[in-house]
Write a structure and sequence with these properties.
Number of domains: 2
Distance between the termini: 17 Å
CATH class of the largest domain: Alpha Beta
Order of helices and strands: HEHEHEHEHEHEHEHEHHEHHH
CATH superfamily of the largest domain: Aspartate/ornithine carbamoyltransferase
Bound molecules: phosphoric acid mono(formamide)ester, norvaline
CATH topology of the largest domain: Rossmann fold
Helix content: 40-55%
Length: 328
């Protein structure tokens, strides 16, 4: 019997495969209930605080809608308009907020900040993205894979691009725990940290997953069921790194040729937001500067029938709801 009441959700490394499965299945159940119009206000009257030190569309909206669906109230805290960090420490913020709220979400910079918040909080703390990990995103991705293929174990999962940041790290851990065959495809300097790979190797031995780190695109994508990518420059990184990233990662763009190496049944995934066209301020500026019409994925692949990116986006809400539902 799985009981997650009172637990923080800071990174997938803290959760067993059974607990991760439980959250994915709970999200699926909550999704079906919502589609049928069945209310589930099981945390009526509770309150959650949502701290965002970086911008967000999906994660913020997912937490807010999920909280309302569960009967809760949500307070959005924008650090430019609060005392957090500048005039009040994380430890003090944790003790103040946990006296008023039943749960706290945090999106920001170093993983150590969300860990510190959890250490001093009396109520569950949920990681809404740090530089190192984005665990709620992986629950949504795995729910989406399960919906498309019916299972997770044995799926050939290829991550293209910067694999040493939050998405690459979290997907590596998730695959190692849940038995998906993970391949990171990038130049070597973009592979995850050696210590994390070693830890995941041990997890993979238990789950039956294989972990590969490959620089050759065709080799990596042969037999792939899932091709996943993320932006080449993440939130909080300086604008100057664009040039180096474009030079290093262009060969790893997900385009029609890359997709042709994978299985014909393969799906394309992306956590979003994505620079698949020039319809954003940054995309337009960088596109003009480096003479490109897309970055990590072409518009053709992004808009193709193999792309499931908007299913993933919707599933952020159902899976975040499952995390709050289970831990409160
Ligand atoms: N995928 C994701 O976390 O999106 P947001 O930055 O919009 O929250
Ligand atoms: N790697 C990206 C993920 C966004 C959801 C970032 O940190 O900006």
């Amino acid at each position: 019997m799985i009981n997650l009441k009172g637990r923080d959700f800071l990174k997938l490394l803290d959760y067993s495969p059974e607990e991760i499965s439980y959250l994915i299945d709970l999200a699926s159940k909550l999704k079906q209930q919502k589609k049928k119009g069945k209310k589930h206000q099981i945390h009526k009257g509770k309150n959650v605080a949502l701290i965002f030190e970086k911008t967000s569309t999906r994660t913020r909206c997912a937490f807010e809608v999920a909280a309302y669906d569960l009967g809760m109230n949500a307070t959005y805290l924008d650090p430019t308009a609060s005392q957090i960090g500048k005039k009040e420490s994380i430890a003090d913020t944790a003790r103040v907020l946990s006296g008023m709220y039943d749960g706290i979400e945090y999106r920001g910079f170093g993983q150590e900040i969300v860990e510190e918040l959890a250490k001093y909080s009396k109520v569950p703390v949920w990681n809404g993205l740090t530089n190192e990990f984005h665990p709620t995103q992986i629950l949504a991705d795995f729910l989406t894979i399960k919906e498309k293929f019916g299972y997770l174990k044995g799926i050939n999962f290829v991550y293209m691009g910067d694999a040493r940041y939050n998405m690459g790290n979290s997907l590596l851990v998730g695959c190692a725990k849940m038995g998906l065959n993970f391949t990171a495809c990038a130049p070597e300097k973009y592979f995850p940290d050696k210590a994390l790979i070693d830890e995941c190797q041990k997890l993979a031995e238990q789950s039956g997953a294989t972990l590969k780190f490959e620089t050759d695109v065709e080799k990596a994508l042969k037999g792939a069921d899932v091709i996943y990518t993320d932006v080449w420059v993440s939130m909080g990184e300086p604008i100057e790194v664009w040039e180096e990233r474009i030079n290093d990662l262009s060969p790893y763009q997900v385009n029609a040729k890359a997709m042709s190496y994978a299985k014909p049944t393969a799906i394309f995934m992306h956590c979003l937001p994505s620079f698949h066209d020039l319809k954003t301020v940054v995309g337009k500026e960088m596109g003009a500067k480096f003479n490109r019409d897309a970055m990590e994925v072409t518009d053709e692949v992004f808009e193709s029938s193999q792309s499931v990116v908007f299913d993933e986006a919707e599933n952020r809400m159902h899976t975040i709801k499952a995390v709050m539902c289970a831990t409160l």
